[in-house]
């Protein structure tokens, strides 16, 4: 895996083997799409990072420092993704918080992932995952480093024609994709699952909700999803992705999906194929 | 934090910033107590590690290699703890399993932690934690690297006179301590909570269950615990720790606890103060 990296501001590709990010997954991350040096959703990423730092009692990072370091690691790249990882740093052995926290800040730049040619136009084929997400309100919504559930869910398929898997909670409510948030149009209303018990509250999801005040956050069952007139996925890295099928249920990208793709282009993101 | 470390067999104190152990908590660990170069519970640690590797689809490590590396990192130390961390290694960005897995193996040696003078004789004072453990049968029992719940639970107190915190699941069943397993004597029967939905199935717990076939694994409520005649904690690093109080409920270390401490000494562990 390549990529330019700054660790606590210095060029490095390694971190301490005693970092709590590795020992316990004790930290957070953001993956931020850049287009010619600009990150249209930067402030939303910083909002989520700050809010999650408060919840995990991590010292708040300096957004200006992060912005500068992001610019350094993607210098010269037209389409880039920056992963910012923030951990509680090196500590004594054991779960107790270090008395003098010294967080680790990893800022890494990568080429933006290529999407399949017609992903934005025709949409993705999606499957159901069997891996349920556990209900943990204390961690729900955050993009923290404890992501084994996503790893297990993503490991359920290897067919490259399947673009994403949908995960439910233990009660069978639809929550999200393994790496995307989920939206549907039900009876003409844009809806997305509530994420107060599990799941990651994506920055793209936040942007959609802010731009569509009429959208509803609610519980969503597979039966609801089956009768939706439109289904799409959101991702801060990939944008607005229509769903063309969930298992055997087929959808046609509709006007709400297309309008949000247009909104995304207006923010400055390329979705040329749509 | 000090300690001698081998990373994939070579002296090093760092790992790749792209390691999936750091990115997603995608891995496992064992903390193994050594006394003058011997690890009485070594084979049980290897059993758990192998079983968890199968569940997480991690390549099985070679136990002989691990044993050799453990010996190297504790060379000359009379009382030591070895932490073995096994991750899925460096991969492409994204949750999908690497097509060619190259696990990372970190073997680190530390001085064994000192216990408070009368911990083994008089026992620990213990509190209840508010942080619930989420129910996730796919991860339950394993000592994986997703430990934010334990970090949050341990962050609930800083009073050094409190030796451990007890955690429950979301339904209020008592599960364990933050870093220990829990046993109680109820109506003359040794019991310990079931760990098929959350919690870590400790190696010391496995040794106790193997040596006490009459012990029962079952659901345990705080009310049950309040009327127990004995309560103790088990840990592969710390051994058998009597509980002298859980909140306001006081216990006296009893014959079952003392017999298991004796068993622990018989295995070769020092618990001099007991």
TrEMBL record, chains A, B:
Query: Which reactions appear under catalytic activity for this entry?
Result: 4-amino-4-deoxychorismate = 4-aminobenzoate + pyruvate + H(+)
**Required cofactors, per record?**
pyridoxal 5'-phosphate
CDD domains in UniProt: ADCL_like
Query: What keywords is this UniProt entry annotated with?
Result: Folate biosynthesis, Lyase, Pyridoxal phosphate
EC? 4.1.3.38
Gene Ontology MF annotations: 4-amino-4-deoxychorismate lyase activity
Say yes or no: keyword Lyase present: yes
- Entry superkingdom: Bacteria
**Pathway where this protein functions:** Cofactor biosynthesis; tetrahydrofolate biosynthesis; 4-aminobenzoate from chorismate: step 2/2
Query: What quaternary structure, including any partners, is listed in this protein's UniProt entry?
Result: Homodimer.
Q: Which family does it belong to?
A: Belongs to the class-IV pyridoxal-phosphate-dependent aminotransferase family.
Name used for this protein in its record = Aminodeoxychorismate lyase
Per the UniProt entry, what species is this protein from, by scientific name?
A: Dyella japonica
